[in-house]
Amino acid sequence: MGRKIPLWQCLIVILAMVGFLMWAILKDNGGEPHIALILAACVAAIVAAANGWKWAYLEQGILASINRSMQACLILAVVGCMIASWMAAGTIPSMMYYGIKVISPKVFLVTACILCSIVSLATGSSWSTAGSMGVALIGVGTALGFPDIMTAGAVVSGAYFGDKMSPLSDTTNLAPAMAGATLFGHIKHMIYTTGTSLCIALVAYAVMGFMHASANEPDMSVLNEITEFIKASSNISVIALIPPIFVIAAVALKLPALPSLIGGVFIGVPLMFWNRPFIETALEASEIDGGLTANIFNILNNGVSMGVVPEGASDVIGELASLLSGSGMQGMFWTISIILCAMCFGGIVDVTGIMATFANLLLKIARGRGGLVLATEFMCILVNAICCDQYLALVLPGRMFKEKFEDMRLRPENLSRCLEDSGTITSNFFPWNTCGATMRNFLGVGNGYIPYAILNWLNPVVSIFFGYAGITMTKLTDEEYDKILAEREKEKAEALAALEA
Question: Which DSSP helix (H) or strand (E) runs through 477?
Fold first, then answer.
């Protein structure tokens, strides 16, 4: 291990990352951030080496960071196969078709948010929700005349509400573990801030949906053209809805996420043969020889474009056709590679204590209960942006701010709520973060959806307001506080005994 890195050098590392990313996103043609993140990791490594940190130690930090992201990478690859499987099986076209038929344009955004909330609550996964229900809702929104970024915002809001409120979610279990709270005590305490944020978001979506639908009344002839185009692209049937029902049920029954998603992939394969004439037409249009039987692995790996646009079709049909194509496993590797590049940088700044330096600075300037909540939530956002990992955004601030909450006699549920109100819910704001890269890939949108992800940016604001106002900021009893002090003394004594031994 090396020396503690001075604050001014820590700032150089952060400014280098920001500068490289800004150049990549604003100046570089296409906005590819991969090399920018690698260059930022190089700067972090040089600064660390100048302070006596050995490369072997930095490498271990990088590998540990990549290891934390491997489940996310595996899920991304499997979801790529799943989307391709469901596209070829007619599952996603059927979801889009029935959604267009059933959902009223004026309540579409509200419906999208609520549906994603329910699915995410049942599965505990914002990723599975966005990769299945979200993809279909983007298509429905396009057909109803809603911009993709607006629909994506409603999808992300609902998906993250369910993710952070579900006892099945990994982040919902991790946050109370870091703060020393109980799982259900943590969920109950989040209802105040997250429930308030969701109610405000639903009202906003209702107003937005009503105004957009009134100003852009869907042309029934266009809607009919869209539904006919979807019917011409795939077999439309409730039978095609079996794969997503299986995945939702499997995860709700607490089966592991990866096997459940893989099951969703292979349940879609027999349905491909039921949808065979449409698939072979799509393969022929893409100049792929051999028919369905010879191309099953090819479809799962590279996807298939089910929407063959007829000549003279309207622009909306062309846009919808792009949504009826899945890029398969290979389509996810751009996202996986950006995660790996981000983990190189995040691992170095974590293991060298650069993030701890910023946390200590925030602790010094935090004043009072409201200031502590603000500092905690700001730190969560900072870790999401710099370490590029949602889990670190819960672990690092949770570990660093725990004693400060206890010293202010605030119950651990207050800290765990702050971690989720900011760490979990803002993780998708940054395109190089694992969650940000995933949401943009699944939904096919850029950064423009963030203003429409109302729950995600409103929740931290509501939480900070509750902190300053003291609303539901529950206190430790004298007995609980004395017990915490006794545990601290015991830990110090054990650590001293270990050193002496």
Answer: none
Q: State mean pLDDT over 477-501.
A: 75
DSSP assignment string, 23-62: IIIIISTT---HHHHHHHHHHHHHHHHHTT--HHHHHHHH
Reported confidence tier of residue 29, pLDDT bands at 50, 70, 90: low
Name the token pair of 9. 């050098």
Residue 304, classed as helix, strand or coil, is strand
* Separation between Cα atoms, residue 250 and residue 247, nearest integer Å: 5
Residue 279 has pLDDT above 60, yes or no: yes
Say how many C-beta atoms besides its own lie within 10 A of residue 246's C-beta. Answer: 15
Average pLDDT of the residues in 319-331: 75
Q: Which of 466, 377, 459 is nearest to 423 (CA)?
A: 377
CA distance 112 to 127: 15
pTM for the model: 0.71
Helix axes of 454-469 and 183-215: crossing angle, nearest 10 degrees: 130
Give the total residue count for the chain: 501
Separation of alpha carbons 129 and 156, rounded Å: 9
The token pair that represents 8 in the structure block: 């001014």
Residue 130 and residue 159 in contact, taking contact as beta carbons nearer than 8 Å: yes
Average pLDDT over residues 490-500: 68
Show Cβ contacts of residue 136 under 8 Å, excluding neighbours closer than 6 positions. Answer: 92, 95, 96, 99
Tell me how far apart the alpha carbons of residues 121 and 10 are, in angstroms, rounded to a whole number: 39
Q: Which stretches within 352-472 are classed as H helix?
A: 354-365, 368-386, 390-407, 412-418, 434-443, 454-469
Q: Are the C-beta atoms of 390 and 352 separated by less than 8 Å?
A: no
Q: What is the DSSP string of 82-133?
A: HHHHHHHHTHHHHHHHHHHHH--GGGHHHHHHHHHHHHHHHHS-HHHHIIII
Pairwise pLDDT comparison (350 vs 158), residue with the higher score:
158
Please give the distance of CA 79 from its chain centroid, rounded to a whole number: 14
Average pLDDT of the segment spanning 152-163: 91
Q: Mean per-residue pLDDT for 81-98?
A: 84
- Rounded to whole angstroms, the Cα distance separating 183 from 165 reads 10
Q: Positive or negative CA dihedral for 415, 421, 425, 426?
A: negative
Q: Is 3 helix (H, G, I), strand (E, B) or coil?
A: coil
Would you place residue 177 in the very low, low, confident or very high pLDDT band (cuts 50, 70, 90)? confident
User: Whole-number mean pLDDT of the chain?
Assistant: 83
For the chain, how far is it from start to end, CA to CA, in angstroms? 22
